Amino acid sequence: MIDKTVTSAAEAVADVGDGASLAVGGFGLSGNPIALIQAILAQGTRDLSIVSNNCGVDDWGLGVLLNAKRIRKMTSSYVGENKEFERQFLSGELELELTPQGTLAEKLRAGGAGIAAFYTQTGVGTQVAEGGLPRRYDGDGGVAVASPAKDVRSFTIDGEPRDYVLEEAIVTDFALVHAARGDRHGNLIFNKAARNFNPLAAMAGRVCIAQVEELVEPGELDPDSIHLPGIYVHRVLEVGTDIEKRIERRTVASPTTGM
């Protein structure tokens, strides 16, 4: 039996060194692998290049690494909810590769599937394809590094020619993900919104590290219910079902309007 379990978060991320690239699961704060993120913070790793839908909030998720100045570059599709992210980007301290959300998801999936690049209509006719999006500012309001132009080709689909932009796949040194359940072989099941980016991030990492709320023995998971097969997962850490899980904003219905 291949037992991929580790006994601590520190052990799980011990070889994540300075300058590493990471694909990190989560959507907003849903499905953030916070135990692994905090272990990387504790061991002092810096100059990280991180691919994730967003960068958490100021005091949670990837925001804890950002606040500690451990992140060199973010590749993300959403940059709201985090004032420190905005400050570091505009001051030239942080590089940002802003990527449409669906494109980012497919870039991760393609990396895990061994597909080098793909064409998509998303971004055609914008700076996503034409280049010029600020990636790093110079601290004085000027653009120090801008995105390059991408290859655009015309394909005829259903008899209609359309332009498509070439997007390259993403493969990272490591992936950090959070799952609801997992077994010792690394087979994972994600809960609701946590399934958005976690399976894709896991696929893109050369070494995938998964924190799971509940660890079970091989054979206990229904094969038809498994969202990510263990072939993509290299280490599994059980964090318990009582691990803290935050949300950005809590919204309740009005008792009079129901809205």
Which spans of ≥5 residues are poorly predicted at pLDDT below 50?
none
Strand content: 25-35%
Considering the protein shown, what is the CATH homologous superfamily of one domain?
Answer: Glutaconate Coenzyme A-transferase
Largest sheet: 8 strands, mixed
Fraction in helix: 10-25%
CATH architecture of one domain: 3-Layer(aba) Sandwich
Large-scale geometry: globular
Q: Over all CA atoms, what is the radius of gyration? A: 19 Å
Number of strands: 13
What do these coordinates show?
The chain is α/β, with parallel strands linked by helices and 259 residues long. It has a domain at 9-116 and 169-238: Glutaconate Coenzyme A-transferase, CATH 3.40.1080.10. Helices cover 20% and strands 29% of the residues. It has 7 helices and 13 strands. The chain has helices at residues 9-12, 34-43, 63-67, 83-90, 101-113, 127-130, 198-204, and strands spanning 21-24, 48-51, 71-76, 95-98, 117-120, 134-137, 143-146, 152-157, 160-168, 172-183, 188-189, 205-216, 235-238. Strands 1, 2, 3, 4, 10, 11, 12 and 13 form an 8-stranded mixed beta sheet that branches. A 3-stranded antiparallel beta sheet has the order 5-9-8. Helix 2 (34-43) links the parallel strand 1 (21-24) and strand 2. Helix 5 packs across helix 7 (198-204). The chain starts with 8 loop residues before the first helix and ends in a 21-residue tail after the last strand.
